[in-house]
Amino acid sequence: MNVRAHMSMLFHLDKCIGCHTCSIACKNLWTDRKGAEYMWWNNVETRPGAGYPTQWENQNHYKGGWKFTKASGYGEKNKLELRLHTRTGALAKLYYNPDLPSLEDYYEPFTFRYEDLFNSPEGKDQPTAIPISMVTNKPLHIESGPNWDDDLGGSNLYARNDPNREGLSDEVKAALDEVDRVVFNYLPRICNHCLNPACVAACPSGAIYKRAEDGIVLVNENQCRAWRMCVAACPYKKVYYNWNTGKSEKCILCFPRMETGQAPACAHSCVGRIRYMGVLLYDADRIPAAANVPDEELVDSFLDTLLDPFDPEVIAAARENGIDDGWIKAAQESPIYKFVKVWKIALPLHLEYRTMAMMFYIPPLSPVMSSIKVSSIKDGSVRLELDDDPQHEFELFNNLDKARIPVKYLANLFSAGNEETIRRILRKIYAVRIYMRRKTVDKAIDEATLQVLTQVGCSPEEAEAIYKLTTLPTTAERFVLPPYHREMSVETWKDPLAHKGEVGVGYLQLPQRGE
Amino acid sequence: MEYRDEAPTGKLDLVVDLNFRMDTSALYSDIVLPAATWYEKTDLNSTDLHTFVNPMQAAVPPSWESKCDWDIYKAVAKKVSELAKVHLPEPVRDVVMIPLQHDTPDEVTQPTVADWKAGECEPIPGKTMPKFRVVERDYTLLYERMVTLGPGVEENGVAAHGLKIPVADEYQALAREQGRKFNGRVYPSLEESREVADTILRLDPVTNGELAYRAFVEEEHKTGRPLTHLAEGTRSVKYTFADLIAQPRRVLTSPTWSASINKGRAYSPFTLNVEELIPWRTLTGRQHFYLDHELYLQWGEHLPTYKPRPDHTMLDETQMTEAEAQGRLMNYITPHGKWSIHSTYSENHRMMTLSRGDYPIWLNDKDAEELGIKDNDWVELFNDNGVFVQRCNVSARIPKGTVFVYHATERTVGIPISPLRGKRAGMNNSITRARLKPVLMAGGYAQFTYAFNYWGPTGVNRDTNVFVRKVESVEF
Question: What is the ipTM of this complex?
Answer without folding.
Answer: 0.88
